[in-house]
Amino acid sequence: MSKKNLIIEQAALLFAEHSIESTSIEHITKKCGISKGAFYLHFKSKDDLILQIFEHFFKDIAGRFTAIEGGSFPASKKLRTYVITFFEVLEDKLPFISMYMRQQRTPNEALFALFTHYNSLIDEATKQLLITVYQKKIEGVTMDILVTLKGLIRGYSEHILLNRAAYDYDKLADTIVERLDTIVEHTTLWFLQDDAISLPPCEAISFELISKEIVTQLDNYQDNAFLHESLELLYTELNKQNASPALIAGMLANLQDEPALQWLRFLIKNYKKSV
């Protein structure tokens, strides 16, 4: 684990346990076994750290979703896995999220912009998954199905946040998937319609964003020769004017079993440039 991710994960735990106001940077550095100088190499302030904690959460879930969509198991199981994964991530991050909500910290412009950006990226991953699962059945109405799925998940998420108990997420996933299957099979009236099943790549993803992520991961994987070399080759190929799709696909395959690299795979897969 990189030092930056160590700080993010330990700080989230400390904030959840003691609150943001009661947790000092000194508490965080002591927990991580680092100096304050090492902390400030990665974060400008505590507020910057909080922003990057949320960004870390968003990257985690988008990366997991793209791994599910590209997984080798049957398409019929992918949506169920997606739903279970969402609620498992929610459960894992719930202590920090609940603390943040209880303290009624007003989201600043930077946090709102961050949420908007990653929401569009997660929507993209979800749309691709829905197309994989339902194929021609949702041609022309992919956006409506996406909104319906998000509505179901958001409704149950709010219930879980406000009514803490031990929930059976396998049963919840089966419930949501059965409901969505019924809507896909039997609905005749759709509110939102799109032009085609082949949706354009996400405009929010830039080459600069991909390059920055590769450089970050090259630093994180210096001790893993195989992954470091794959990242280097990927970076070199993407910088070519006529990049080889086959070589890029091969390098992405090398990264598919590494959880921390799923976000990078998502970015490259949905980059608007044809590679």
TrEMBL record:
Domain of life of the organism encoding this protein: Bacteria
**Sequence ranges assigned to domain HTH tetR-type in this UniProt record:** 1-61
MF terms from GO for this chain are: DNA binding
In terms of SUPFAM superfamilies, this protein maps to: Homeodomain-like (SSF46689)
Q: Which Gene3D superfamilies match?
A: Homeodomain-like, Tetracycline Repressor, domain 2
Give the annotated DNA-binding region, as residue ranges.
24-43
Asked whether the UniProt record includes DNA-binding among its keywords, one would answer yes
Per UniProt, the keywords (alphabetical) are:
DNA-binding
Query: By its UniProt entry, which PANTHER family does this protein fall under?
Result: ACREF/ENVCD OPERON REPRESSOR-RELATED (PTHR43479), TRANSCRIPTIONAL REGULATOR, TETR FAMILY (PTHR43479:SF22)
What protein is this chain from? HTH-type transcriptional repressor KstR2
